[in-house]
Amino acid sequence: MSNVSERILARRAAVQILYQSEISGVPADKLLDGGLVPEEAKANDYARELVCGVSAHRAELDRAIGESSQNWAIDRMPVVDRSILRLAIYEMRYVDDVPQSVTINEAVELAKAFGGEDDSHRFVNGILGRLARQGEDASERQNEAADSSEAVVRAEEASGDSAEQVAEIPTMGILSDFMPAEAAPADEASDAE
User: Fold this and answer.
1) Sign of the torsion formed by the C-alpha atoms of 129, 134, 138 and 141
2) CB atoms within 10 A of CB 7
3) What are the Cα distances from residue 92, in Å, to 1, 81, 105?
4) Please, what's the b/e burial string for 50-87 (b: 16 or more CB within 10 A of its CB; e: otherwise)?
5) How many C-beta atoms surround the C-beta of residue 111 within 10 A?
6) pLDDT digits (tens, 9 = 90+) for 2-41
């Protein structure tokens, strides 16, 4: 079985485990460790990673869902939709080798298969799309700030180099002996004319 197929099955298993955990009130990691997972939700290593990651970051994931959903309180969302969203957001934030577009597409497919409402897949897609755009905007701001910082450093280095070059110009004693004439008071200047 290919790595892609294994991950698809892992996501399905992880969603089922997360759903069962929320419905039963038993922590997801206890379901995994206690062998309380249904046979069809047999978890491979990637499913375990997802389930444990979602469990460890649940408060953060719920905050992200709440901030991204419009007119929907997280506790009013169908349990399966919450489980899919938590899983996808965890994968988007913490699994580097899966592109966000793949994560979103897989979450939409899970919502089509298991979703709590007829339009669950649209709802999941909307929230995840919003989070992806916010992430891209934040990444662009970080890149702009880094570019700006690099430009400042380059400018400082350039100005530092030219200041060193100016300091290295020999004066041959001529300029060091030069003292500017003090300005004469206005009355004396008019008398001198």
Assistant:
1) positive
2) 20
3) 24, 16, 12
4) bbebbbebeeebbebbeebbeeeebeebbebbbbbbbb
5) 26
6) 777 889 989 998 999 999 999 999 898 888 777 666 565 5
